[in-house]
Design a protein that fits this description.
- It is found in: Membrane.
- It comes from Pseudohoeflea coraliihabitans.
- This is DMT family transporter.
- Keywords: Membrane, Transmembrane, Transmembrane helix.
- The structure is a single chain.
- This protein has 297 residues and is an all-alpha fold.
- The chain has one domain.
- Helices cover 79% and strands 0% of the residues.
- The radius of gyration is 19 Å and the shape is globular.
- The mean pLDDT is 85.
Length: 297
């Protein structure tokens, strides 16, 4: 379980750094073009690794379903998230995504019958309070929009189904590499379809910073991220995956501080502590329960 948690935290951190670099490149290009470059090159890297390792995903209905899964996540999650972000404010986006730790376990329970201890929901609620406090004082210009909020909520629901489907896909703990390869390939195909309608507008890669940013998006935000995320799904239930995702805004704040020089307020430490306590709640209760059992024996 510990390796799964570390893998997910790696996935969350590189994702948050990638979002900042992605936004910088989109200003010079377009969303569809950046996604095609990012996902297409990442798929090539993963298939090259498959060839070097002399392995490949089996040709089966499961593999086809895995490709289709890639169209939904990150494909559909990206589309809904970007469309919603264009209409509503950043605070609303952060708060709606903060509901993911509460929605994820419910979806997993309804779809695949995976149970979740009450402490997961309690921890999710505590973490949501931390996200709300962390976000409240960082209001951006712009106003909340119901249609935009609805699109963001749809993206969160898709992400919850994504984690649930990913849990099923990765139940064989040795398949995570194949699953990640097919998922990224499916997402690249979906991005290619979007680009046909949106047009091809590549950024200037003669600028060194653009090339380095794209390299990070390919190798870390996509290749490393999806390998780590599927590795985590092979070892952790959806409830813990969803709860651990509460750390996303913390990593996003840290990434913004490192890359953009964003200000860290003294109160931010207290808000991060709320999130940390929420994420740690199920683990601490299990530790205390196991310790009590050892003493009684």
């Amino acid at each position: 379980m510990r390796t799964g948690i570390l893998a997910q935290f790696l996935s969350l951190f590189v994702w948050q750094v990638g979002l900042i670099l992605q936004k910088l490149l989109v200003v010079q290009s377009s969303v569809a073009t950046i996604l095609v470059l990012q996902l297409g090159l990442a798929a090539m890297v993963l298939w090259a690794a498959q060839l070097i390792l002399r392995r490949h995903p089996p040709v089966s209905t499961r593999s086809l379903a895995n490709l289709g899964w890639g169209l939904m996540a990150p494909g559909l999650v990206f589309v809904l998230g970007i469309a919603g972000a264009a209409r509503t404010d950043g605070v609303s986006i952060a708060l709606i995504w903060g509901l993911f730790p509460l929605i994820g376990p419910l979806v997993a329970r309804l779809v695949i019958g995976e149970p979740a201890h009450w402490s997961v929901y309690g921890g999710g609620l505590l973490a949501f309070i931390g996200v709300a406090l962390l976000t409240a004082g960082r209001a951006e210009s712009g106003s909340s929009d119901m249609a935009g909020n609805g699109l963001i909520l749809a993206a969160v629901l898709c992400a919850a189904f994504n984690a649930t489907i990913g849990r099923v896909m990765n139940r064989n703990a040795t398949r995570w590499f194949d699953v990640a390869t097919l998922q990224v390939t499916g997402a690249a195909l979906g991005a290619g379809v979007v680009m046909v309608f949106a047009g091809w507008h590549p950024p200037s890669l003669s600028v060194p910073s653009n090339g380095l940013a794209l390299a990070f998006l390919v190798l870390f935000m996509t290749v490393a991220n999806f390998l780590a995320f599927n590795f985590a799904l092979a070892r952790l239930p959806v409830a813990l995956i969803a709860l651990n995702a509460s750390f996303a805004p913390v990593f996003g704040l840290l990434a913004a501080w490192i890359l953009l020089g964003s200000t860290l307020r003294p109160a931010d430490s207290a808000y991060v502590l709320f999130i940390l306590c929420g994420v740690a709640m199920p683990h601490m209760l299990r530790y205390l329960k196991d310790k009590g059992s050892v003493r009684r024996s």
